[in-house]
Amino acid sequence: MSAIKAVCVYCASSTQVGAVYLDAAYELGQRMGRAGLELIYGGASIGLMGALARGVHAERGRVVGVLPKFFMQKNIRYDEADELIVTRDMRDRKATMDERADAFLVLPGGVGTLEEATEILSMVQLGLTAKPLVFINTDGFYDGLFAHFEKMVALRFAKDETMKMFANVETPTQAIDFIERFQPPELPGKWF
């Protein structure tokens, strides 16, 4: 039995994205709900965030939204959340999500999603967390990012092990399978 019970998912709140991304978010939510995995996420009702939360609830799963106080004025919160945590600011939000989660999944998203995911990647690199980090590369969305990571390794800005610090999968099913079987990789040591 997996030790993973709660999963933080980072993703877009944009309402302008293509259906392929919204469908993947909803499917991930359904898979999480069926697997009994609690969702920890940014608390919004719109974009991929909203599709994800609705997918979890479609399978009677539990949804925990974490919103910074200033987002409450934007009227985008997912009111159906089983638990809604309001934090002081974005830093508190990320810390709360990190504390509550046993694993991190990254769906397509914008600058905020990328910032959240790379912070976790940095924590893995520094040995500050051993929780799994999985990018769901829907429709090749993260191909450019992975190419940049490889360039950083090739130019010696990052160690070869960087590419082992996260998983790159194409589907929600593969992401759930990965975290359910996760064993922390043997890494030669911290960055310094």
TrEMBL record:
Keywords tagged on the record: Cytokinin biosynthesis, Glycosidase, Hydrolase
Enzyme Commission code: 3.2.2.n1
Pfam families, per the entry: Lysine_decarbox (PF03641)
Reaction equations catalysed: AMP + H2O = D-ribose 5-phosphate + adenine
GO molecular function, one term: hydrolase activity, acting on glycosyl bonds
Spans traversing the lipid bilayer: none
InterPro entries assigned: LOG, LOG_fam
Xref: NCBIfam families: Rossman fold protein, TIGR00730 family
Similarity comment: family membership: Belongs to the LOG family.
Protein name: Cytokinin riboside 5'-monophosphate phosphoribohydrolase
Organism: Nitrospina watsonii
